[in-house]
Amino acid sequence: MFTLLGGERKKKWTTLVHNGPMFPPLYEPHNIPISYINPINGETQKVYLNPKAEEIATLYAKILGHEILENKTFQKNFWKDWKETLGSDSPIKELRNCDFYEINRYYLNQKNILINLKPEEKEKIKKKKEAIEEKYQYCIIDGKKEKVGNFKIEPPGIFMGRGNNPNLGKIKRRINPEDVIINIGKEAPIPDTPSPNSDWKEVIHDETAIWLSSWKDTITRKNKYIFTSHEAGFKSKSDEKKFNRARELKKIIKKIHLNNNKNIDSTDEKTRQLATALYLIDNLALRVGSSKNKKETADTVGVTSLRVEHLKLLENNYIKLDFLGKDSIRYCNKVKVSQEIYRNLKEFQKDKARKDQLFNLINSQTLNEYLKSFMPKLTSKVFRTYNASETFQKGLNKIESEKMEKLSEGERINFLLELINQANAEVAILCNHQKAISSSFKNQIEKMDERIKKSKKLLKKAKTSKSKSKKERIEKIKKKIKLMQIKKKTKLKMKNVSLGTSKNNYIDPRIIIAFMKKYNIPVDKIFNKTLENRFDWAMNIENDFNF
């Protein structure tokens, strides 16, 4: 038996007390109209909206100028959802004829008022906010006070998403108590709802689950949860188990490779498909994938749901994979595979149409069963964690200690931090952890180039100097240039790479902590306070730890 989260159905607690989730404040109408150009007579009229339509219009007005407003999917979805709130008697018939400028100006004015408040006024607002939040920030598990993670339910919003998500522009409607399931101890008092006229969807007492509240996302219809904080005992134990399982995989990885390679050449096609899928999971850190309803959700895929159109066979055993992965992030990778894998993929494509399944004889369930035949509880995520940690460890092992000679303490630490970032980037690229390129990225690179250029001029000048300290000066500038060039190289490499996901979830923190101890790097240079507390279980590791 398993919990909703896929973990084993074991009793996790005996008593659980909490105050439920914190709901966002109710919307307060500002009664500012939008301007609408009548497409028939071309006249502009002021249109006052009902509170529900006005709230959504305000969300749109807040993002005026954002490039996402040019997206056709975004416009189509927003209009479809917004017009349902306008009412049948509304004169607004087309989104393109709406002008949200007045609401945008009001929003910016309100924002500036808050920015320009006196420090004592800001402090007063902050304390009031903290006092309201206090009761939701903690729960009591088996008599022990624990921090709750993200205890707030998100306010209504517009789905901005990532990548090419078909849900772009849809309205995330307000979550009410009637949407929320509370999980709490049998003897604990049931949390109050925000208003006396509301009630929870359901109150349960599931001692095998570690979530406190749950509801369905109004767009994706996926379950959302409120958990204890990453710093709490549940999360720490979960993290430690996860990374230890990845280390267990490392111990038998050669044996798995040996057996899987035999299956790659099996006479049974289903076995060949399973073995080929595992090869891709292991070497490219792909997820398993599952079948989906295209009309209801984004066309994201994993290994088992790859279609013929997602794979292109190139020359010399190279293949190109191009598809939308988790969160609609595009995965596009050209990579060389073994001759046997290339042969299999070619066979799996044979006599199939573009939309046909590449691995038509297997699914996520059969592939997961295949993984567990090698090791209990083995999943694609264990492979991702193993490969992420192994890649990171190898990256740190590339350190050339002689390059740190004669560096000042600050330069030495910066050099080591860049090495950590480069190794982290390798992992993020492997796992396809991406982010949008910052609008200021080009400007940042130009500033780095300017600093390098100035330093090179200083170097040229230093070489013609007759100073007694000429040699030391030249050496110092050279090292400074080298460090700046390393930083620039790292920044270019990471322009659309998200380091946080891999560092927080896939890299064994003991690798980082051991490295930190070995080279006397302050902990706050690597982990913020939250991560430091979350990985407290790993802090006593010796400096010679190797994943």
From TrEMBL:
<keyword id="KW-0175">Coiled coil</keyword>
<dbReference type="InterPro" id="IPR014711">
    <property type="entry name" value="TopoI_cat_a-hlx-sub_euk"/>
</dbReference>
<dbReference type="InterPro" id="IPR036202">
    <property type="entry name" value="TopoI_DNA-bd_euk_N_sf"/>
</dbReference>
<dbReference type="GO" id="GO:0005730">
    <property type="term" value="C:nucleolus"/>
</dbReference>
<dbReference type="Pfam" id="PF02919">
    <property type="entry name" value="Topoisom_I_N"/>
</dbReference>
<dbReference type="InterPro" id="IPR008336">
    <property type="entry name" value="TopoI_DNA-bd_euk"/>
</dbReference>
<dbReference type="Pfam" id="PF14370">
    <property type="entry name" value="Topo_C_assoc"/>
</dbReference>
<feature type="domain" description="DNA topoisomerase I eukaryotic-type">
    <location>
        <begin position="158"/>
        <end position="520"/>
    </location>
</feature>
<comment type="similarity">
    <text>Belongs to the type IB topoisomerase family.</text>
</comment>
<dbReference type="GO" id="GO:0005694">
    <property type="term" value="C:chromosome"/>
</dbReference>
<dbReference type="GO" id="GO:0007059">
    <property type="term" value="P:chromosome segregation"/>
</dbReference>
<dbReference type="InterPro" id="IPR025834">
    <property type="entry name" value="TopoI_C_dom"/>
</dbReference>
<dbReference type="GO" id="GO:0003917">
    <property type="term" value="F:DNA topoisomerase type I (single strand cut, ATP-independent) activity"/>
</dbReference>
<keyword id="KW-0413">Isomerase</keyword>
<dbReference type="GO" id="GO:0003677">
    <property type="term" value="F:DNA binding"/>
</dbReference>
<dbReference type="InterPro" id="IPR013030">
    <property type="entry name" value="DNA_topo_DNA_db_N_dom2"/>
</dbReference>
<keyword id="KW-0799">Topoisomerase</keyword>
<protein>
    <recommendedName>
        <fullName>DNA topoisomerase 1</fullName>
        <ecNumber>5.6.2.1</ecNumber>
    </recommendedName>
</protein>
<dbReference type="InterPro" id="IPR013034">
    <property type="entry name" value="DNA_topo_DNA_db_N_dom1"/>
</dbReference>
<feature type="coiled-coil region">
    <location>
        <begin position="445"/>
        <end position="487"/>
    </location>
</feature>
<dbReference type="Pfam" id="PF01028">
    <property type="entry name" value="Topoisom_I"/>
</dbReference>
<dbReference type="InterPro" id="IPR051062">
    <property type="entry name" value="Topoisomerase_IB"/>
</dbReference>
<dbReference type="InterPro" id="IPR013500">
    <property type="entry name" value="TopoI_cat_euk"/>
</dbReference>
<keyword id="KW-0238">DNA-binding</keyword>
<dbReference type="GO" id="GO:0006260">
    <property type="term" value="P:DNA replication"/>
</dbReference>
<dbReference type="InterPro" id="IPR014727">
    <property type="entry name" value="TopoI_cat_a/b-sub_euk"/>
</dbReference>
<dbReference type="InterPro" id="IPR011010">
    <property type="entry name" value="DNA_brk_join_enz"/>
</dbReference>
<dbReference type="GO" id="GO:0006265">
    <property type="term" value="P:DNA topological change"/>
</dbReference>
<dbReference type="InterPro" id="IPR001631">
    <property type="entry name" value="TopoI"/>
</dbReference>
<dbReference type="InterPro" id="IPR013499">
    <property type="entry name" value="TopoI_euk"/>
</dbReference>
